[in-house]
Design a protein that fits this description.
This protein is mostly helical. It has seven helices and no strands. α4 packs across α6 and α5 crosses α7.
Length: 180
């Protein structure tokens, strides 16, 4: 009995499933919108509500088609814009790296120049260095005094008049505070 029941159950469940799949092939046509009022009005041309409904459906279908075309056009425009933005971003990144390289080169040159200047002041006699430093802007002179060897800096400040020495010392302290 079991051998007969099993094929019967399979046939019972498989037949409706196969029929549903066969009908589903035409199911996509049910969901498609057509703007042909002839098929919609077949046999209903004498009913004004049906005619109005068919016209409304046709108008809606046409609006939907136009809207879908505009969406596709916008997608195309957005893809082009995204591509141009990507290209521009790459250009800007390359330009930024070139600028950064130039800045790094310039700052290394400035550091090299300052190091040479500091070495020059390290070699000068304290009274000569003090005479030159007092004629420089206070912040620049303070920067040089911070970078010279401590012994040379102490001798240079000792050779500067007290009021100027106080100003240079204040500038040196202010620079240290700003860095923190």
């Amino acid at each position: 009995m079991r051998k007969v029941l099993m094929p019967l159950l399979i046939l019972t469940f498989l037949a409706p499933a196969a029929l549903a799949l066969w009908q589903a092939q035409g199911l996509s046509r049910l969901f498609a919108a057509f703007a042909e009022s002839g098929e919609l009005l077949q046999g209903c041309t004498d009913v004004p509500e049906a005619v109005a409904l068919a016209e409304e459906l046709r108008d809606r279908a046409l609006r939907i088609e136009r809207y879908m075309r505009s969406i596709e056009d916008r997608k195309t425009e957005l893809a082009k814009a995204e591509e141009s933005l990507t290209v521009r971003l790459r250009e800007l990144k390359a330009q930024k790296s070139r600028i950064r390289a130039r800045q790094d080169s310039a700052s290394s040159e400035v550091r090299s120049d300052i190091d040479r200047l500091v070495a020059l002041y390290d070699q000068m006699k304290p009274d000569q260095a003090a005479a030159v430093l007092t004629n420089l802007p206070a912040d620049f002179a303070a920067e040089i005094l911070i970078r010279v060897r401590p012994e040379a800096g102490a001798r240079i400040i000792a050779a500067v008049e007290p009021r100027q020495a106080a100003l240079l010392t204040a500038q040196m302290g202010a620079r240290s505070v700003r860095k923190q």
